[in-house]
Structure formats: C-alpha cells, structure tokens
Design goal:
This protein is an alpha/beta fold and about 625 residues long. Bound molecules: fructose -6-phosphate. The site of fructose -6-phosphate (F6R) has 14 residues, from helix 10 and helix 17.
Length: about 625
C-alpha cells in the first residue's frame, strides 16, 4: 500500500527509481510519480495508473533527466482523493522548492490544511500529504535547515507516515523519517537507497538500516546521520538483509500466485526444519519465550489479525483449544483496537501477519503490550515492525510473497499454529505421548501430500472452466474447515471479483439457503472426520434446492457421486491437518477462474499487499 523509493549517489537515478518502484508494485497502487534533482531545479513527473504510463511520460524528457543522480519516487494507493495526476505524489510546497513522498495517513490533515491555508498556502490536491509538504516548507522558511524543518514538522503531525524529502537548496541530500509505516535505507559505496521494502533495493545492496519510529536520517552520498525526535544523534544499527534477488522472479510460471501456490510443499518443509526433527522428538521454537509458569498464569489467549491471516488465526484457535485447553478468542484487529478488551498480564496476545506491517494489527499489538500482555508474533517478516514489538516470535519462513493474494504465507501460518499449539501442549503435558507422536508424524507427511495435489490439477481446472461465469459462489464447511471455507471464498473474491461467501454449513438453513437455486454453486469442504456426516446432510439440503454441487473431499464414499456435479479429490489426512490439504485446491480454483476470466491475478484492483493504513 503506497511505496516509497529514494536514491542519492553518483549514478543516473531515473532507472534506479523506476526499477525500485516496479519491485514495490505488489503492494498495490493506482498512480505513480518521481521527483529528480536536475541541473538547477527539481523536476516532478507523474502518471495515473500503472508504472508503464510513468515510464512513457519520461520518454519525452530523457535529455533533462538523464544526468540526475538524486531523486525520490512513489506509487500511490488512493486514500484521500481519487487516483488522479494532481493527487499523485511527489507533492510540493507552493514555490516547488520542497518536494516529498509519503506513505501512511495524516490524521490531523484537515486542521493542518486550515492552519496552512490561513498562512497563505494554496492547496492543489485533495491529499493529506500535501499538508505535510506545506508544513515542512513553512518550517524550512524559518530554520533554513531541511533536517530541522522535518523534525519540527513531524512534531505537529498526527497519524502514520514514512516520508522522503528533498529541497532545491540541497544538491545531494535526502531527509527521511517514519512513524508506524515501514522505511529502510540501503547502504552502498558512496550511495544510499531509500525504500518502503527490501525488494526495491536488494538488487543493489544487502546492507541496510531500518528506521525506528520518530528517527530522522539525513543522507548524502558520503554519509548518513541519524537523530531522534529531540535532535540527538543516534548510533546506527546496520543489518545484512537475508534476501536473494532471484526470489522476485516468476521462475517460468505465468503469475507469481501460481508460483507461490507451487512453492507450498517447500514452504512446509522449511518451517519444519530445525523445529521438528522426528515424531518422537520435542518441538523446538527458539524464539518463543513461554514456559510452564507463564502458561499456568494465562487465563486467555487473544489472536488478532486481518484478512487471510485472520482465517489462519481461526484455525489456530481450534488447535490451541483442542491441544492445550486454553480459551482462545480470535478477532479482526480493526475491531479489537476500538473497544475495551479484557486484556492484561494474564493474556497471551498472538498477532498474525504475513507482512508484519498491517497498521490495524500493529496498533492492536501495541495496545495489548501496553496492558502488560506477552506478545507473540507469527510473521513472514522477522524484520518487520510487528516482529520488533514481539516478546516471542514464530517466523514462518515462506520467502517473499509477491502476489497480492496470500497463498503460501497462509499455509506457513497454519504450520506455525500446529507447531505452536503442540509446543505449548508439550509444555503443559496436555496431549498424551502416542497421540503427540502420531500428530507429528502426520505433520511431516504434509509436504508430499501437497505435492500430490499439485501434480494433477486437471479436475480443478475443469471445475474452474465450468463455474468461471457464475456471479456468486458459496463455500460451506464445518469445524476446523470453516476457516477454509472463508479463505477459499476470499481467494475467489479478491482475484476474480465473483461474489463468494463462506458459511458454516449448519448455518445454511438459518438464512442463506434462501439464495439457493440452479444458478448457485455450493462447494462443500467434505473432509473425513467428526463433522463429515453432518456436512453431508447439509449438502443434501443444498442439493434439494437445486444448487450446483461441488465437493472437495478426501473420502471414497460412493454416495458423493450422486450428490455432486464435480468432485475434487485430495489425499487422505488426519482431520486436524485437513485445512492445510483442503486449501491448496481452493487456491488453484480461484487462480484458474481468475486466469480464465483474464483478470490481473497478481495485482487485483483496489487491493494492496501491505495495508499500512488503519
Ligand atoms: C488476502 C490478503 C489479505 C491479507 C491482510 C493481512 O489474500 O492477502 O487479506 O491477509 O491484508 O495482511 P498481513 O497478513 O500482512 O497482516
């Protein structure tokens, strides 16, 4: 969601900025722009829509921009004002000397706008960001010092921001700062890169520094100076990024989403490495700091997350309650943060987030931390803001996920919950040893079962073609696969724009059954286990209303052949692990439908990969 890049050094900057922005495209955006320090002036170029439009705009300005060696760039996901040229970043002050890009939301922008308008500033856009440009410029008019101007301005800003600022008076200086929005500085030889995320810089350098909230960095080709909000100079913590540029290639797949679905057997293997050696050995979670005493003192667990991560959390609740007998509540972070929750030092709060940057979840985590709860974070980004808040961490090691629709990170989050729930059960001794050994043995077989699904996708593709033109879709399941139904529906909705809904099958007759007729596909996630027969009856009820029936199943039950128009078969698996197996064909179904419909699979409309605004 919005992406920032910046560069100061001695190399031509245009391609560095454009390539960097391209690597951030996965975050989701609807317009873009760059500002370049050229001979005597700063030049700003913007375009609506995809980056190719910005590249085309720049083609007619090659001679004026080609020698520039400092600039900033932005992809914008519209929050305040439509995705138009005027609203696209960079934004400037009225004289055009001060230029900046911004990621986040300025909550007090209306007050700032009124105040600055009264001082004579003329606003040209509807964005919250423009207020910051005028504000920093007004501070600069008094201080004539860009870093100080940024420092003073940020003291008047409420909300979330990552900012990258340049000024015409400075030939080769960028000033960057952040609060509740991601920003890092890549360190090269006589050059620095600024970015919202690693992919934008990894091609150039593996050395980087993550800014903490309220820190301000002043960057010239020779050096970086870091200060805190009071202006005190700070030591710099330089890290080596554990990333390879190759992770960002499609490796021959048509879309990142398909590649990421196919990576899942390895994702499961990876997360087990070092954590589960053999069925009769204990689970090792080195970064989890829970012991018998802390678990004994808990009276509840709260899991907070958004979107796909929320669905993984719902499976997590099922597992923890089942294996550990501790009460678990699961809540969308955006709801959790605006009510009085019963959260205290006896609450374990688990935050789940692929990106580790989702604003609502980050805020919820901070609120819970302030109440004294132990914070455990499950994330794909151990370098993220959420991970930095954690008392305990379970990194899911899924590798970068480029496609906006989460697939492999979901499976990795499920695996993290299996490991965590069994780890806690081992501490609590709440599962007997033979059961524990059999669960671990089953867990170790999951990669080959996913491999089996991926090696034959014919039935899923047939199904995708048969239902691609439907307007609505219902997914039903019960028990531990109810979250699978929600996640399957979410996948379809977000990349094909078909109206899909997940229901607990027992709820159908309490309302949704009214929608069923011969135009409505109903997909039953019929996995062997405690609720199989119940779900079969619910499927009969749907069939009796003429719905078009599809089964996703690991059963050989002959009855299914009469009941269902299409049957997608998956390998047999213990019920508790069935969410991992059942999800893979549902990801593929969503993918093939979207692909068949010619949708922009990896970057669906209106969506952002990293939702850094509340
Ligand atoms: C769906 C999807 C989103 C994210 C949600 C939370 O495919 O990707 O629903 O799951 O925005 O993001 P994270 O997990 O990064 O906190």
């Amino acid at each position: 969601m919005c992406g920032i890049v910046g560069y100061v050094g001695d190399r031509p900057v245009v391609d560095i900025l454009l390539d960097g922005l391209e690597q951030l495209e996965y975050r989701g955006y609807d317009s873009s722009g760059i500002a370049l320090k050229c001979a005597d002036d700063i030049k700003v170029y913007k375009a609506e829509g995809k980056l190719i439009n910005l590249r085309n705009t720049l083609k007619s300005h090659v001679s004026e921009v080609s020698s520039s060696t400092m600039g900033i760039g932005h992809i914008r996901w519209a929050t305040h004002g439509a995705p138009t040229l005027l609203n696209a970043h960079p934004h400037t002050c009225n004289c055009g000397n001060l230029v900046l890009v911004h990621n986040g939301i300025i909550e007090n922008y209306k007050e700032l706008r009124e105040k600055l308008t009264a001082q004579g500033c003329v606003f040209r856009s509807q964005t919250d960001t423009e207020a910051v440009a005028h504000l920093v410029a007004s501070k600069y008019a008094k201080t004539k010092d860009l870093t100080e101007a940024v420092r003073l301005a940020t003291q008047e800003i409420e909300g979330a921001y990552a900012l990258c600022v340049m000024h015409n008076d400075y030939k080769n200086t960028l000033v960057v700062t952040k609060r509740n929005a991601p920003l890092l500085v890549g360190i090269g030889e006589g050059e620095f890169y600024v970015a919202s995320d690693v992919p934008a810089i990894i091609k150039h350098t593996k050395k980087a520094m993550y800014l903490n909230d309220n820190q301000i960095a002043t960057i010239t080709p020779e050096k970086l100076v870091l200060i805190d909000k009071d202006g005190n100079e700070l030591p710099q913590k330089i890290e080596v990024l554990p990333w390879e540029p190759v992770a960002l290639s499609k490796m021959g797949y048509k879309h990142f989403m398909l590649k990421e679905i196919h990576e899942q057997p390895d994702v499961v293997r990876n997360i087990l490495v070092g954590k589960l050696h053999a069925p009769d050995e204990p689970i090792v979670l080195n970064e989890v700091k829970l012991n018998k005493e802390t678990l004994k003192n808990l009276n509840r667990i709260q899991i907070i997350a958004c979107g796909t991560s929320l669905h993984a959390a719902m499976v997590g609740k099922y597992l923890i309650e089942n294996f550990c007998g501790i009460a678990v509540d699961v809540e969308a972070s955006s709801e959790y943060i605006y009510r009085k929750t019963v959260t205290d030092a006896h609450t374990l709060v688990i935050g789940v987030s692929q990106s580790g940057e989702t604003a609502d979840t980050l805020t919820a985590i901070k609120q819970a931390k302030a109440k004294g709860s132990h914070i455990l974070i499950i994330t794909n980004r151990p370098d993220s803001a959420m991970a930095r808040e954690a008392d305990s961490l379970v990194p899911v090691n899924a590798g970068i996920e480029v496609s906006v629709a989460a697939t492999k990170s979901y499976t990795a989050q499920l695996m993290a919950f299996y490991l965590l729930a069994l780890y806690m059960a081992e501490i609590k001794e709440s599962v007997d040893v033979p059961t524990m050994t059999s669960l671990k043995a089953e867990m170790m077989l999951l990669p080959q079962k996913i491999d089996q699904i991926l090696s034959n996708t014919d039935e899923v593709q047939k199904c995708a073609r048969a239902y691609a033109n439907t307007k609505d879709f219902i997914y039903v399941a019960r028990g531990i696969n109810f979250p699978t139904a929600l996640e399957g529906a979410l996948k379809l909705k977000e990349i094909s724009y078909i109206n899909a809904t997940g229901y607990p099958a027992g709820e159908l007759k309490h309302g949704p059954i009214a929608m069923l007729d011969e135009t409505m596909p109903v997909l039953s996630i019929l996995m062997n286990g405690s609720v199989y027969e119940k779900l079969l009856s619910n499927s009969e009820e749907a069939k009796a209303r003429n719905a078009r029936m599809i089964a996703l199943t690991n059963s050989n039950d002959e009855k299914l052949n009469d009941l269902f128009e299409h049957i997608i078969r998956v390998p047999d698996v213990q019920e508790l692990f069935s969410p991992v197996i059942a999800m893979v064909p549902l990801q593929l179904l969503a993918y093939y439908i979207a692909e068949f419909l010619g949708k922009d699979v990896d970057q669906p409309r209106n969506l952002a990969k990293s939702v850094t605004v509340e």
